[in-house]
Specification:
The chain is an alpha+beta fold. It has 18 helices and 16 strands. The strands form three sheets. Strands 1, 2, 3, 4, 5, 8 and 14 form a seven-stranded mixed β-sheet that branches. Strands 9, 10, 11, 12, 13, 15 and 16 form a seven-stranded mixed β-sheet that branches. Helix 1 runs antiparallel to helix 3, helix 9 crosses helix 17 and helix 17 packs antiparallel against helix 18. The protein is globular and about 65 Å long.
Amino acid sequence: MGRPGLDRRQLLGGLGGLFVASSFGFAALGTGADALASDASTRVRYWNLFSGGDGANMIAMLDAFRADHPGIAVKDSTLQWGNPFYTKLAMAAAGHRAPDLGVMHLGRVTGFAPGRLLDPWDTALLAEFGVREEDFNPALWKRAVVDGKLYALPLDIHVQLCFYRKDVLRKAGLLGADGRMVPVGSPEEWFDVLKKARKATAKGLQTIGFWHNDQNFQWWFFVAFYTQLGGTWFDAARTEVTFDTGKAVQVLEFLRRHVTDGFADPGFGGGAGAEQFLNGSPFVWEGNWSVPVFSGAKLDYGATPLPPVFGRPATHAESHAFVLPHQSGRGGATDEAAHRLAAYVVRHARQWAAGGHIPAYTPTLSTAAYRKLDPQSEYVCAMDHQANEPKVWFAGSTGILAQRVGPIVVSATTGSAGPETAARRMKSALTGLLATKNPMDGRTAAEGGAAA
């Protein structure tokens, strides 16, 4: 793209203050660890960050691909989740040791120097393998496009949800005729629901768990409700902060009220909300990845996107997406096999939906098998109401934006800072980040990498 290359030493130096660069080892190996020793005609090296239930589901899909494509050997490697994964992937691309296929959170793609550390997808080749732009939510596809080229192939969206115990809400008179939670459309309606649910809750349990002292969750919740209010972050040129402190105060006051009104107990931190939900607490705000846990416990529960208390439906959403880490000699049979593998997994994501994620490939959503999934079919509407972080290099899962602004949201939610003070601090942090250069390519947000 007309910019000088970035070698390993430059990259590691730039990452020093931002990423944990000391943990580059593999956390685990997938079922294809012996692929390089097979007699298949084509081999694909694939790095991902999926562990636990997601890891098991991914392995199942890879095994299905292997059975259908015996001529392609897949060597899948699972690396440590978070910044260690991104650091290793970046250094591999800069050092000409990149895998043939990788996975990233879509919000991190813009910051990964597309054209330097990532190669664009061949959309004609993807179409040949059954994956086309019209098979995806338009807003999701647009997020994967940088400088007019597709740099990520979305596998799913994963969203923040309002989980609710049907047994408790039934007792409180909060279930509709369809067996789902009554709808709410304002903060007062929501807090009225919490008041009624509290009366039906067993002693010793809080009414709602919502990670009040966790910077990532509080940031995700803020993004959702700020989006509901129509809040913006930056102008189109990424030169001016348009963050609305008035709207931010509304959101911060809303979050704080869960604690001050006694619905969320400050004594329960971390993942205690999910544990209490298992024990009978009526509500918990959690990511959709909790579905296997709650379903495995045989709970009578439902899950809906975060309540549209400010009128406009929107819940925080991220996406796992396939990427092509930069290779100087990319092409040929191996590259074609990487396209085929990614397209296959995207098109056969019914297994992936079992982990709670919403498949990005929209034809899957209309199948009878998907519609039977519960509670997945209840919150599938979140695909059309995504609240995303801004498309800038410092955003995305575990990104600098959450690290800088998330703790400020926590300070307001827990009461160590007033909402007005916190809102001003958030705008100041956004202003500083907008002027900061991306260590991946030395450019600010205004200097490139955000245009769809």
